[in-house]
Design goal:
alpha/beta; Rossmann fold; globular; Histidinol_DH_CS (chains A, B)
Chain lengths: 433, 433
């Protein structure tokens, strides 16, 4: 397998880099149209529409919405049926994710000025959240943990999970994870119709305030459309890893780290940057050697051949610059002094520091969230966190003196903008002592 | 003028309330199509496309993009030309907005576990932000302050402002505000073409990481479409105020507070809730008396008649419940003990506590932001703040011991999900002591 090789010394390096990382979900007007119709139908007809679309797309033929609800008993049975080792691993992972996210909890604050005017910010949690879990091959119990735990920590009162069960097959690992983190209600529905049900509410499914979780192109488009009616987390692109490694790293380890991203799907992107040409060659050798041992060999090969790359740089500082341009979802710093190099990093979803720290541990159990900004969106967005399930209200409480002083300023500015009622409303409070 | 009257004791109160607050921006496929075309054209042809659309929509006929850039000199001249009183008011407002937003600044944190594994969160600012300022009657200098200052406090290195100048007319107040808060570059362009230029970058206008600021239906649709390529703040609906007032409030003040929201535009919504029927009647009288003094009488009348309402409740607690359902953008608590009532409030953009505190002061100079969630989105979103211009990267640095312990857990979970490269990548780090 031959991985693309780039070198920052090449005259057209910047163009090559842009081409490499360029990814744009194609605009698909057919998907847009279909999703718009499904959403409007679910909004209008509620349960009945969801039932019909689920019969059509998932081949599950129930006549009442209640039949799609998965009972507490079924969830708990799934958890009890887990092999002991899996259950312990899942519990330990959940505990660590809880611990980390607890540190993100925001609190209300306020301060009082000299004239007793109080200003502040009141922090509250969202009331009810919808959690979308994909069906089929991309249904991961770890995703249930990573999406539900921050909501729980924030204090969200009710989490409604939806997960499609094509042909009625229910993913037991996903149900076990839902039981473990105490998701409140679970419905075996999916697709744009499930997003519509959560966003607008139906006779059976209560309207939520925000929808989180990954999904296919239809789910992504549906989330984009209902944004505003409810909050959404983000519309994720293919997963990516960028590894900055020096020549002292173990080439087998780095090759496997590149595989671990590539095995997700054919569009996933793995990029390795190193100042050492010989190290890059060693990793290429490790790739050729290790690929034969991989059950998901085909996916890995397609991903690495089409979207993977190795980039030779002059220095680690240059590597950091390129990383900042790429703004990767996952960034491994497999170098002697990651504490120093991390100071040069500006944009990245999660940073894995040191040779010991592989992305896979972060995906499951280190503690931080594995829902991360993809496709260069780390330039402006953040990992999913407790803050996504909290919100803030500004607090303003003026003293007599404050109303007097600020009323005068507001009056001048309001008149300047031609808003006389604003001005008068402020003026009423002047001289009210 | 007759304002709608509702009473929680009416049998169909809930339906009436839902009807009252229901607002949905109509889906306009013509706008969607036009905007999609403009964006794709700007993406493809850059400056030349922006120049042509600006000629067509704003009737400004420049041949080079540079001619649309407003020089530092022109900005500073606008600031110098302000009347002394206006300048002082603007400066004092800016200072207070700076002070409040400084308290929102997030810092990086990390902690070390017993085995020396480090977990944390690195906080950085966005690099470059685009600020959209509408032209025409809704061009407010206060909006420039409220959008630019949180970005400045966050440490954003470059703010690019766009503001249309139909027929070449440049709003001097807006330019003065831009000079005051040291916006880096200003272009006299607007509409979907300006959003496209900021989102994709052109030969002259650099690509930004996030676009904030209000705009008309075309601008809103354009922001919705470029979301993902860049971040956006929110897609705002009509402005709203909800006032909870007891019978000891001054009916003239409350009437004027209702006007101050209604004067924004015909779709703005002003709602008053009180346990006192006689107080509601007094406010109705004040409205009829004071409306005659209002230069924006027509807008206020249309807004109050079509979208305004008074709601009679049994208790202040019931008022808070209704407020939580409405989740208003602005909430005034004109009561004896606002500190106690505020505990019952869960969803609101900004809360104005006590009879002294009118919304207008918050709009201009109290300190908190005036960009607030509308149309019930306070259920899941927050005022614009410094946190909108900062982002977080997770930090994970495993000790040998940590890699050993967590590698085992990750291995079990990865095998459970059928991701063998994930498992192997973690296993390599086990027993590496």
């Amino acid at each position: 397998m031959q991985i693309k090789k780039l070198n920052t010394q090449d005259s057209n390096f910047k163009d090559q880099l842009s081409q490499l990382i360029f990814f744009e979900a194609e605009e698909n007007t057919q998907i847009e149209k279909t999703v718009a119709e499904i959403l409007s139908d679910v909004k209008k007809r509620g349960d009945q529409a969801v039932i019909e679309y689920t019969k059509k797309f998932d081949h599950v033929d129930f006549s009442r919405m209640e039949e799609f609800e998965i009972s507490k008993e079924e969830l708990n049975l799934a958890l009890k049926s887990l092999p002991q080792k899996s259950r312990e691993a899942l519990e330990e992972a959940a505990k660590r994710v809880f611990d980390y996210h607890n540190k993100q909890l925001m609190s209300s604050w306020s301060y009082t000025e000299d004239d007793q005017t109080l200003l502040g910010q009141k922090v509250t949690s969202l009331d009810r959240v919808g959690l979308y879990v994909p069906g089929g091959k991309a249904a991961y119990p770890s995703s249930v943990l990573m999406n539900a735990i921050p909501a729980k920590v924030a204090g969200v009162k009710e989490i409604i999970m939806v997960v499609p069960s094509p042909h009625g097959e229910r993913n037991q690992l996903v149900l076990a994870a839902a039981a473990l983190v105490k998701v409140d209600r679970v419905f075996a529905i999916g697709g744009a119709q499930a997003i519509g049900a959560l966003a607008y509410g139906t006779q059976t499914i209560p309207q939520v305030d925000k929808i989180v979780g990954p999904g296919n192109a239809y789910v992504a488009e549906a989330k984009r459309r209902v944004f505003g009616v409810v909050g959404i987390d983000m519309v994720a692109g293919p997963s990516e890893i960028l590894i900055i490694a020096d020549e002292k790293s173990n080439p087998d380890w780095i090759a496997m780290d590149l595989f671990s991203q590539a095995e997700h799907d054919e569009l996933a992107q793995s990029i390795l940057i190193s100042p050492s040409e010989s190290f890059l060659n060693q990793v290429q050798e490790s790739i050729d050697k290790l690929i034969e041992t991989m059950p998901r060999k085909k996916i890995i090969e397609t991903s690495l051949t089409n979207r993977g790359a190795m980039i030779k740089v002059k220095t680690l500082e240059e590597a950091a610059e390129i990383s900042n341009f790429i703004s990767p979802e996952h960034l491994e710093l497999s170098v002697d002094d990651p504490d120093s190099l991390v100071n040069n990093i500006k944009h990245a979803g999660a940073i894995f520091m040191g040779r010991n720290t592989c992305e896979a541990v972060g995906d499951y159990c280190a503690g931080p969230n594995h829902v991360l900004p993809t496709s260069r969106t780390a330039r402006f967005s953040s990992p999913l966190g407790v803050y996504d399930f909290q919100k803030r209200s500004s607090l303003i409480k003026l003293s007599n003196q404050g109303a007097h002083k600020l009323g005068k300023i507001a009056s001048v500015l309001a008149h300047g903008e031609g808003l006389q009622a604003h001005a008068k409303s402020a003026e009423y409070r002047i001289d009210n002592e």
